[in-house]
């Protein structure tokens, strides 16, 4: 158990932006929301899930929709309380804590804002260990936890509750409602007892995000005898995929998602070679000289070649110099159930999943 203040939020936002694999929303927008809530309502208590009783009610909070839209549709101060009131009325129980559902950008920050404004602790765990574009893509689905009821609210005050027959149907119905509400809503889903988080959650993800953020901010002070790139790859347990300059970028918002492809011309030791990264909110696959070198559910991250700051898909720009890095995913994503939910073939990629560490040994 520890307190999260403004400095902690800065570090968590940076590290979570890396774990977001290009998605999860603009970390800057989320950071401002969290900092504003903490300054107004006080610091947030971060707790290990094992500190909670097994039957304690944990409430994940997230934004659903296209990340680019959040720059125009900020989250207000009252939406969290309205969502919580409906959840507590539905279950007839008081919530014990809130929790991030994913690590990445705005969705690592909104639970901090919610915890501050609701006066609840936040659990140091999530359901991905990264970010994914669809609601059913969480480790709790693998564990059999229902996403229903899902409650959502938009900035206009439209509030809805849905119950569906599967978690995929939550995604389908919510995405239609999200599009109707302008492309982005605040939501609560996968309300569960702490025992489920203990068994299927990605524990320590907030702390991991903060450690990564702290390391990136101090990357120039790397150990003697190592370059910043070597230190970055060693600390993140990452695999170097490609270094290049953005030569072309195609991006469109469709059905509540950001779709696109970024084309890279090689620089440095990759000069003369080409690569591209495909994304749907998050980066899905990296291909170098016609060979796939990493796919979902492993994390594909684009970072600045000098500062190693992560670059979300909605911030990619022509001419930017980036390093593509592959990070191994949480172990449950490599199971048959995990690959069915978020493997490459789910996204229409014509390849079987091969762990990034194996692809990079070839």
TrEMBL record:
Per its UniProt entry, which superkingdom is the organism in? Bacteria
The record, for InterPro entries, names: S-Me-THD-like_C, S-Me-THD_C_sf, S-Me-THD_N, S-Me-THD_N_sf
* Domain S-Me-THD N-terminal as annotated: residue spans: 7-163
Write down a Pfam family by its short name: S-Me-THD_N
Start and end residues of each S-Me-THD-like C-terminal domain: 166-356
Q: What is this protein called?
A: DUF917 domain-containing protein
Organism of origin: Slackia faecicanis
């Amino acid at each position: 158990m520890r307190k999260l203040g403004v400095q902690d939020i800065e570090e968590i936002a940076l590290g979570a932006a890396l774990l977001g694999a290009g998605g999860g929303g603009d970390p800057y927008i989320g950071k401002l929301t969290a900092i504003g809530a903490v300054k107004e309502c006080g610091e947030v208590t971060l707790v290990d899930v094992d500190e909670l009783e097994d039957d304690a009610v944990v409430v994940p909070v997230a934004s659903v929709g296209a990340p680019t839209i959040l720059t125009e549709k900020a989250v207000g101060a009252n939406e969290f309380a309205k969502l919580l009131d409906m959840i507590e009325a539905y279950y007839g129980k008081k919530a014990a804590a809130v929790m991030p559902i994913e690590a990445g950008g705005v969705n690592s920050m909104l639970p901090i804002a919610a915890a501050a404004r609701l006066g609840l602790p936040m659990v140091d765990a999530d359901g991905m260990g990264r970010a994914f574009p669809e609601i059913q893509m969480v480790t709790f689905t693998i564990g059999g936890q229902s996403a229903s009821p899902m409650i959502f609210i938009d900035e206009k005050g439209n509030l809805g509750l849905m119950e569906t027959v599967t978690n995929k149907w939550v995604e389908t119905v919510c995405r239609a409602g999200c599009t109707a509400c302008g492309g982005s809503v605040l939501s609560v889903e996968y309300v569960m007892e702490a025992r489920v988080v203990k068994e299927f959650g990605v524990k320590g993800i907030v702390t991991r995000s903060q450690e990564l953020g702290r390391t990136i901010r101090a990357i120039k002070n790397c150990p003697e005898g190592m370059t910043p790139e070597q230190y970055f790859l060693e600390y993140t347990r990452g695999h170097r995929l490609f270094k290049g300059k953005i030569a072309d970028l195609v991006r469109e918002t469709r059905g509540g998602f950001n779709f696109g492809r970024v084309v890279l011309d090689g620089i440095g030791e990759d000069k003369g070679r080409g690569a591209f990264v495909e994304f749907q909110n998050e980066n899905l696959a990296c291909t170098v000289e016609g060979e796939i070198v990493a796919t979902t559910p492993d994390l594909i991250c684009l970072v600045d070649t000098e500062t190693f700051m992560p670059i979300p898909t909605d911030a990619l720009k022509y001419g930017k110099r980036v390093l593509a890095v592959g990070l191994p995913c949480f172990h449950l994503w490599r199971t048959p159930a995990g690959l069915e939910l978020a493997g490459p073939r789910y996204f229409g990629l014509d390849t079987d999943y091969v762990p990034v560490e194996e692809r990079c040994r070839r």
